[in-house]
Every structure is written in structure tokens, then in C-alpha cells.
Amino acid sequence: MISSQVEKHARTLTTANDYYLLDSDCFKPKEAISMSTKSKKAKSSNSVYQRGNTWSYIVYPTDVTTGKKKQQWVSSFPTKEAAIESQARARAEILSDTYIPDSSITLEKYLDNWFDGYKITLQPSTIQGYSNNIKSHIIPTIGKTRLSNLDRRMVSNFCFKLLEKGLSPKSIKYVYSILRKALNEAVYDKLIPLNRCQGAKTPPVEAYEAVVYDEYQVKTLLEGVKETPIETAVMLSSLLGLRRGEALGLRFHDCDFEKNEIHVSQQVTTAKSDYRNGPIYGIKPLKTKKKQTHYSNSRIG
């Protein structure tokens, strides 16, 4: 009896096609399947989807690197209404070109990419300074933070942690300026909406007061370096005010022994920044001709 009913049902499926086979022993009418499909579509209207106990949506912002539309899921909304409201704001921002996609990139990864391109605008000595501060201070302390999660309070805490580690307020200000420049580029690239360095607090820098040697101290210094390899450089720096690189860059033909004059036109400075072996030094002219200076015996006397 049961066998004949199954055969009859099967013939109905074959001839009238009124049913679909959903699994090995369960049949549903087409109307039921149609209703089920509509119900599923209702959950995904406006590209809003229920995923477990939360709601998500899809938007299509423009990828800043390729210029093409790219699908992006935004998740973890407690209600459908919250997801729809957030999606509406995101779509409006995409149309006005102000949308900032949520990114998982860390500050460390961003700084690596940013510095690779930015360093071509810097002098070799500046490259070395930037590299040392990024690798020694920024990355070890806040490098693992997601770029999108970085906030003003984190930047402030970072700066005062460097103070606790023994860095001077002036050095911290330099590190902070590197981070600020990097985050400015992140704003331009639409990776973050604001530069989180804005409003961050840094340790106050005390006004610099130069300590000048008196005559006795200068004589003691020159006596201490007499007949040593650095005697000439120290003497020129002390008596003429030459910078270290300017003193090391002097050549014999820069010195007029008849007129007792010195012509400063070049300096020793960092010619190339090698991250593994340190800086490589070389000769380069002064930045401008106005910097070229003549020193005579009247300055020495």
C-alpha cells in the first residue's frame, strides 16, 4: 500500500512537476518554496543581512589604490534598523567622497608603506633620523594598534611613556612630528577621517639656554686636545664657530695662509642612509651660496 502511494507521488512529480525534491524523503509544493524564497529575500533587502544574532550590510566604496568599486561588508549591528541607518550614512558619504572604510591595517604596516615613499623627499641624514625613531620608539610602543583605532588619548599616552623611558621632551617632540606627518598622509589617502595627533598632549619643552665657554675653559679645552687627531677640528670650531661638518669638510686650498683666511664652501654629512650598517658619510656643498663664509685672522684674534 505504501509502495503504491510513493509510486503515484513520483509519477505526479514527473508529469505535473508540481513538487520539488528537497531531500531524500521530504517533498514540498512549489508554492511553499516560493514563499520561503521571498522570506529570505526580505532579510537581504537593501543589501542588509542577518548573520547569526547580528546584522550586516554591504556597500561599494571606491578603492583609493585602484579607483574601482570594491565590495565591503560592515558587521555586528544589534538590530536591522541600526544596520540600515548606518548603511544610509555610508552610502551618503560614498556619494560625497567622504567615506572612510574600516581598515584592519596596523600603524606599523602603514608606517612601513608610508616611509618607503616619503623618504625620497628627505635628505640622507633626515632619513636616518626618521628611520631610527620609527623603529626604536613608534613601532615597539603603538605599532600593533589598528590605524583606524588610534585616537588622541593613545598618542598622548605614547608621548609620556617615552618620557618615562628617558627621552628628552625635545626628542619626543621630534618623534611626535614624524607621527603627525605620517597620519596627515593617511588622512589624504582617506584611511582615517582625522589626524589623531591633533590635540594630543606632549611633554613641554624647556627654552634652550646655550652654555658658552669662558676664556679659561676654551684654553683648557685646546690644551687638552693638543697634538691629537681632533686638535685642528676643535680649534676651528671653538675659535671660528664652525659646525662639525664644516670643519671636517675643509681642504688645503680653502685656506689662504698669506691672508690668514679660510673659505668654507662644503661640509661632511650623511651621504646615504644604510639601515643595517648605519649612515655613510660624504662631502656635499653648503645648502646656499649665502652660507659660504670667509674667516680671517681678525675673527680669530
Overview of this structure, please?
By secondary structure, the protein is of the alpha+beta class. The chain contains 11 helices and 10 strands. The protein has a 3-stranded antiparallel β-sheet with strand order 3-4-5, with helices on one face. Strands 6-7-10 form a 3-stranded antiparallel β-sheet. Helix 4 (107-118) packs antiparallel against helix 5 (124-142) and helix 6 (152-164) runs antiparallel to helix 7. The radius of gyration is 35 Å and the shape is elongated.
Described by its quaternary structure, the protein is single chain
Strand count, sense and closure of the main sheet?
3 strands, antiparallel
Helix amount: 40-55%
Poorly predicted spans: 8-43
Mean pLDDT across all residues, rounded? Answer: 79
Strand line-up across the major sheet: 3-4-5
Tally of DSSP β-strands: 10
Series of secondary-structure elements, N-terminal to C-terminal: HEEHEEEHHHHHHHHEEEEEH
Gyration radius over CA: 35 Å
Number of helices: 11
Find the structural class using helix and strand composition: alpha+beta
Distance between the termini: 128 Å
Q: How large is the share of residues in beta strands?
A: 15-25%
What is the approximate shape?
elongated
